[in-house]
Design goal:
The N and C termini lie far apart (174 Å). Helix 6 packs antiparallel against helix 7 and helix 9 packs antiparallel against helix 11. This protein is an alpha/beta fold. It is elongated, with a radius of gyration of 47 Å. It has 15 helices and 18 strands. The protein has 4 domains: 102 residues, Beta-Lactamase (2-Layer Sandwich); 73 residues, Helix Hairpins (Orthogonal Bundle), CATH 1.10.287; 160 residues, 2-Layer Sandwich (Heat Shock Protein 90); 120 residues, Response regulator (Rossmann fold), CATH 3.40.50.2300. The strands form 4 sheets. It has a 6-stranded mixed sheet with strand order 7-9-11-13-12-10.
Length: 578
């Protein structure tokens, strides 16, 4: 190429084809095809957009429904939800929490959550939030204070929510009302306490039962020998006075052992229809002068109080012991003792808080209350109240409050103790009663022979305690009997087999080693069915002779007993046998 050719301006080259357009047929076809493809592509994209639009619309509807369901769950959830900002102010709160705080939800937004925490738990909520910020979560139990003053125990579970998405949100809380849970725990605790008390009393019952039985054997020897010595004595009045004091002390000790058996639930009750008001009034009147100085006694007795089925002597002891406790609680200070009788309803929910037997049920009961204005009892004292070792310096012999619970149980009743330090103590005793019975029957008096009856014939005495056996032997000789003795059931059967034709009566101890009392009695009956057998025991008749009633048992006599009582029992038995 020459220099002239290079210097000429370049001209666009026209494609081969039509001189007017400069576009050939093939190129036009390619362009049309490209446009068609782009139109199809746009149509496809439009269709996809329409589909996405429909999907987006459906998603929005689902999201709206989900939000609605979430809002319902959030608002109506049985637990509370609260969101706090980094200043501890409420950002979000559901209706459940608003109701718990007795306030409108809108009014709570922006308020400090700490303001709705009970005064006693202010430091606890501060520690809770501090811990939540440090480790990301925290769980505590506090009390929320509502605007109406009501406090509600709640479990508070909090989660720290520091994130870029929620720059102002510090904490999310889940709040659970635990009132019912705590009430159930308290009820369970009371029931467990009741079971522990029952187990404790059962254990003590066994120990007291055994001690009382053995003590009665010792008293049998003391009382029997004292009487025998007094009847044989022609010495000075001084010796007679000494023997009289020994007998008096033995009789008081016998009363103590019967209180012990009553505590163990094995005391003998002579159940009669009695007027509780009369017993309370008489006993309180007798004790009024023995109360500590400065103690005022007030009686408020209900009119037309229904009569109860009870052992009058044991109810007197119960009244005496409760008044004694109240008086001792006011020692060296002025105060007041209030004694009340009434009719009251015991609700099922109250049963776990009562000292009672399994047979005691809710319903209407005659109530005897003793209240004092003394210093009250702490929890440790209340727990130990009915143990034999517990004392409030009760004057005179007796088991005090431990005998009270035995008497209550023996009458199918219940007792409740209300006491706090500085608020005095109230004992409430509940007795069952019969509808329509408002007047008590007169108590039946008992008589004992004043002269010693003289018998003839032979008697068999079986007892495993040598000193008791010897005492009974000499007492029966004093009554005119010829005496055979045995120290266990097998020996008693052997002796009776040998002398059955001449023995006119058998005095059989309830507890002996080897052959049981029941088996011994049956063997004696097989040898000679008509022989009169008297059962003797330190326990009450209901706990020993009951299962032999109707099998030919002639009678029962409870240790310790005097010569006159033994004489009367043998005389009655032999007269009936004739």
């Amino acid at each position: 190429m020459t220099d002239d050719e290079r210097s000429k301006p370049l001209e666009p080259q026209r494609p081969q084809g039509s001189p007017e357009t400069g576009v050939g047929p093939d190129q036009r076809d390619d362009a049309a095809g490209s446009i068609s493809q782009r139109v199809d592509s746009l149509d496809s994209l439009h269709a996809e957009l329409q589909t996405l639009k429909l999907q987006l619309s459906d998603a929005q509807k689902q999201l709206k429904g989900s939000r609605g369901r979430y809002a319902t769950l959030f608002e109506q959830s049985p637990v509370g939800y609260v969101t706090l900002d980094n200043l501890g102010r409420i950002e979000e709160i559901n209706l459940t929490t608003a109701k718990l705080l007795a306030a409108e939800r809108e009014a709570l937004i922006g308020m400090k959550f700490r303001d709705f925490v009970a005064r006693s738990d202010k430091s606890a909520i501060d520690d809770h939030l501090r811990k939540c910020c440090q480790i990301g979560q925290a769980t505590s139990e506090i009390h929320l204070a509502a605007k109406d003053g009501r406090e509600t125990p709640v479990e508070l579970r909090s989660f720290c929510s520091m994130s870029s998405d929620e720059p102002g949100t510090a904490c999310r809380m889940v709040i659970t009302d635990i009132s019912e849970r705590l009430a159930a725990q308290e009820q369970r605790r009371q029931m467990e306490d009741q079971v522990r008390r029952a187990q404790m009393l059962e254990s003590l019952n066994s120990a007291v039962d055994r001690i009382a039985h053995d003590f009665n054997d010792f008293l049998m020897v003391i009382l029997g020998n004292t009487e025998m010595a007094a009847r044989h004595s022609s010495a000075s009045p001084e010796i007679d006075e000494c023997l009289g004091q020994i007998k008096s002390s033995a009789l008081q000790a016998r009363s103590l052992t019967r209180q012990m058996l009553t505590y163990a639930g094995k005391g003998k009750c002579t159940m009669e229809t009695v007027d509780l008001n009369q017993i309370v009034s008489e006993t309180a009147g007798l004790l009024k002068e023995s109360l500590h100085e400065g103690v005022e006694l007030r009686l408020t007795l209900a009119d037309e109080l229904p009569a109860i089925e009870a052992d009058a002597s044991q109810i007197r002891q119960l009244v005496k012991n409760l008044l004694g406790h109240a008086s001792d609680s006011l020692a060296n200070q002025k105060g007041q003792i209030t004694v009340q009788t009434s009719i009251d309803e015991v609700q099922s929910a109250e049963l776990p808080g009562l000292y009672s037997t399994d047979e005691f049920t809710a319903g209407s009961h005659v109530v005897f209350k003793v209240s004092d204005t003394g210093p009250g009892l702490d929890q440790a004292a209340r727990d130990a109240l009915f143990r034999p070792s517990f004392t409030t310096r009760l004057a005179g012999p007796g088991l005090g409050l431990s005998a009270v619970i035995g008497i209550v149980r023996g009458h199918g009743g219940a007792i409740k103790v209300d006491s706090e330090l500085g608020q005095g103590t109230t004992f409430s005793v509940y007795f069952p009663y019969k509808e329509g019975v408002t007047k008590a029957e007169p108590l039946q008096g008992r008589t004992q022979p004043t002269e010693i009856w003289q018998a003839t014939g032979q008697i068999l005495i079986a007892d495993d305690e040598p000193t008791v056996l010897d005492t009974l032997r000499r007492m029966c000789i004093r009554l005119g009997f010829s005496v055979h003795t045995a120290q266990d059931g097998a020996e008693a059967v052997e002796v009776f087999q040998e002398h059955s034709d001449n023995i006119v009566a058998v005095l059989l101890d309830y507890e002996m080693p080897g052959m049981s009392c029941e088996e011994t009695f049956e063997r004696l009956q097989q040898i000679r069915p008509e022989v009169p057998v008297i059962l003797s025991s330190g326990y009450a008749e209901e706990d020993t002779a009951a299962h032999l009633v109707g099998k030919g048992l002639a009678g029962f006599i409870q240790k310790p007993y005097e010569l006159e009582k033994l004489s009367a029992k043998l005389q009655e038995m032999l007269r009936l046998g004739q």
